[in-house]
Amino acid sequence: MSIPKMRGDGGSSPGRRSRRFFMRKRTWAALAVASAAVLAMGIAIPAAQAVHDTGSFELDGNATNNPAVPGDDWDNVCHQVTGTDCSTTSNTSGATAVDWVSDGNLNSTIFTGGGSKDPNDINQWAWNDNSGGLPAKDNLLHSFAARYNTNEGTVLYFGSDRYDNSGDAQQGFWFFQNPISLNNANQTFNGVHAAGDLLVISDFSNGGTTSTISVLEWDPTCASGVNNPQPGQCGAANLRLLKTSTAANCASVGANDQFCGIVNAGTITMPWSFTDKSGTPNNGALNGEFYEGGVNLSALGLADKCFSSVAAETRSSTSPTATLKDFTLGSFGECKTTVHTTPKDGSGADIPAGGLSIDGGSVAVTDQATVTIEGVSTWSGTLQFSLCGPLASAAGCTTGGTAISSSSIDNTTSQPISSSTAQVTSAGTYCWRGDFTPSAASLAAGVKPGSDGSTTECFVVNPVTPTLTTSAGPTVQLGNPISDTATLTGTSNEPGTPVINPTTAGGPAGGTITFTAFGPNNCTTVAFTSAAVPVSGDGTYGPVSFTPTAVGTYHWAATYTGDPPNTNGTSHNTGCTDTGEDVTVTDTTTSSSAQTWLPNDTATVASAGGAALNGTLAVQLYTGDNCGATSGSAVSGQLYTRTLTNATSPQSLTTNNTSFTVSTSSSVSWLVTFTSSDPNVSGSSHCEVTSLTITN
After folding, report:
1. What are the pLDDT digits (tens) for 19-70?
2. What is the share, in percent, of the chain residues with pLDDT greater than 90?
3. Best CA proximity match to 657, nearest among 691, 692, 622, 624
4. Residue 511: partners with Cβ closer than 8 Å, 6 or more residues away
5. Average pLDDT over the chain, rounded to whole?
6. Mean predicted confidence (pLDDT) in 488-509
7. How far apart are the C-alpha atoms of 635 and 653, rounded to whole Å?
8. Which pLDDT belongs to residue 461?
9. Other beta carbons less than 10 A from residue 307's beta carbon
10. Which among 260, 231, 264, 300 has a CA at the least distance from the CA of 32?
């Protein structure tokens, strides 16, 4: 199996945990960590905490996981970083940061220049490829590191393999808080030290039986080193000694060791492609060509440090000012802060997918946040909850909003963390945001701020749709008004000021109700539309009325405009289906009679002896009962005559009155006259009376 070398570009950063790493060479360095003493800097170090027997990682002098022993090994780290098998198909089972680097070319990435020493800042270091002259024992082929939160504390594990074992190995491991990368343009380094960067220097001599380990940190207050420095003193410019030991071999330390290192005691098979100077077959590494170690950060009071990059280096000696030779550089698990918030209702229950109702004008909401800090086990800071809205869309709440509550939290705080309750008084879309701000100490240790105001933190508050019922008046007779009354319930108050956690409550819902009467006898003809009736919250409105001009059935309907944003509009019976809203308009009739009499008469004249009749027969209608003798008068147009010539007796004359009528109780009379023109026959006349009684 061949694992390619990964190298950094100018200006690039290797700061991605368990991804690709930049490769550089350095010599054998071992790892070590603190004991239970109090450092001269005033850091209280807790009681001894184990390194090699935590159960999280195997410090056993080989790189291959032993299934019978608890914990990961470097083959798991290799697989997690490279994605290749590395003789295993399993990643680590709990590492919070990993690094695995292949140097590849024996003559690549070698320290050059007088400024390439540990007391100098990183931007003063220089490197080169193919410069030659590097001793085989100082040539690194691979380096690796992992970080675990164990029951014994936060522990850094690290190691390397080298090209040759002919000679003692002095090696250093740098853990940088800032991202560090290579600048290929001028073969320098990008990035600088941060106070608290950790350096572990190790010397394994006599075939690995003697182990000397020193742990230092970058401290710009150190102007220079002192002779024979003790823990807490400056070992060199910018470097303060935290802890040192000459008996830190993992194979011989006690059960509660705080730091140790170990080399392979005999030939082992590396789980990745490895060829040493001796050409040992089957990826074999001879005694002392593989090294691994561990240091308990919690024991040093450094568990809150977060490291973005890691470098392994080979050196001319264990002195902090030693000349540096080969190196590898990789990305480690930089501090990552994740804030995940989940909107809740006022009781802390999940908000339904359809949202909440504004109800009577106010709804209580809360937020729950989970803050995850990767890279350190000890941290603190402030969690601020803010609420944005109402918004035009669920676009998230990345800035601004209304501050709801703030909490001081740390790694011991029970999660999730709930905000204070917020009162929302307007329908619309809202989005929560949780902002984590590290404390000054955590920020200095590399803990990053974090925020979550994404669209998944949004929720909807829906307006209410009230209920509108109407009550029509009774059936009426035509000519009288019909009426309707509306009852509105379930409205919501208007938004308060401000909308979130208002100081002034909103007033009752406004809007208007309009009444419409359809008919008669259909639901298409609008017979009446009322003026808009103003609304002020729930209540009864009306009655309104109008007077129909036709009989039939009329259908009342009512429409409420609503009062956005909190109260929707609604209507009732616009389809004329509610028979309770029907009003019938009726009418009544009376029967009467008005009699009329049309007077007519038939007059007959006869001679007593049967003589022929000659003359004029006349009939005249009079009002009254005496043919105008003392009262009444002749009715104009009601004189009828007949001339008789040698007419045989008798002769008759019938009137044909069609225009004069009698409609009330009264009397009329007919004057019948025969005027004879024959001297031998006399004339005659008589008054004929009709008395009428008319009862209608």
Report:
1. 222 233 333 333 333 322 222 333 333 344 578 888 999 999 999 999 999 9
2. 74
3. 622
4. 535, 560, 561, 562, 563, 567, 569
5. 89
6. 97
7. 18
8. 98
9. 29
10. 260
pTM as predicted: 0.62
Longest distance between any two alpha carbons in the chain, whole Å: 198
Those residues with Cβ within 8 angstroms of residue 571's Cβ, 6 or more apart along the chain or in another chain: 468, 557, 558, 559, 560
The helix or strand, by DSSP H or E, that contains position 366, with its residue range, turns out to be: strand 363-374
Closest CA to 108 of 142, 131, 125: 131
633: nearest Cα among 614, 613, 606, 660: 660
pLDDT of residue 72 exceeding 60: yes
76: DSSP letter: H
164 has pLDDT over 90: yes
621 - beta bridge partners? Answer: 670
Between the CA atoms of 653, 659, 663 and 664, what dihedral angle is there, to the nearest 10 degrees? -70
Q: Do domains 336-462 and 467-586 have the same CATH topology?
A: yes
Which pLDDT score, from 0 to 100, does residue 435 have? 97
Tell me the three state secondary structure of residue 457.
helix
Which CATH number does 336-462 carry? 2.60.40.3880
Distance between CA atoms of residues 96 and 521, nearest Å:
81
The half-sphere exposure of 70 on its side-chain side, counting CA atoms within 13 A, is 7
Express each pLDDT in 77-120 by its tens digit: 999 999 998 999 999 998 989 999 998 778 778 899 878 999 99
What's the rounded Cα separation, in Å, for the pair 484 and 519?
15
Asked if pLDDT for residue 225 goes beyond 80, the answer is: yes
What residue type is assigned to position 23 of the chain?
A: M
What stretches of 510-639 show up as alpha helix (H) in DSSP? none
- Provide CB contacts within 8 A for 227, sequence distance 6+: none
Collect contacts of 632-637 with beta carbons under 8 A, ≥24 apart.
632/669, 635/660, 635/668
Closest to 374 (Cα-Cα) out of 16, 680, 87, 114? 16
pLDDT of residue 445: 77
Q: Give the whole-angstrom CA distance, residue 433 versus residue 212.
A: 51
pLDDT of the residue at 25: 30
**Residue 154 pairs with which residues in a beta bridge?**
149
Domain 467-586 has CATH 2.60.40.10: yes
Q: How confident is the model at residue 209 (pLDDT cuts 50, 70, 90)?
A: low
Domain boundaries, the chain: 74-331, 336-462, 467-586, 602-692
Phi, psi angle pair for 442, to nearest 5°: -70, -35
Q: List, in sequence order, the alpha helices (H) in 313-439.
A: none
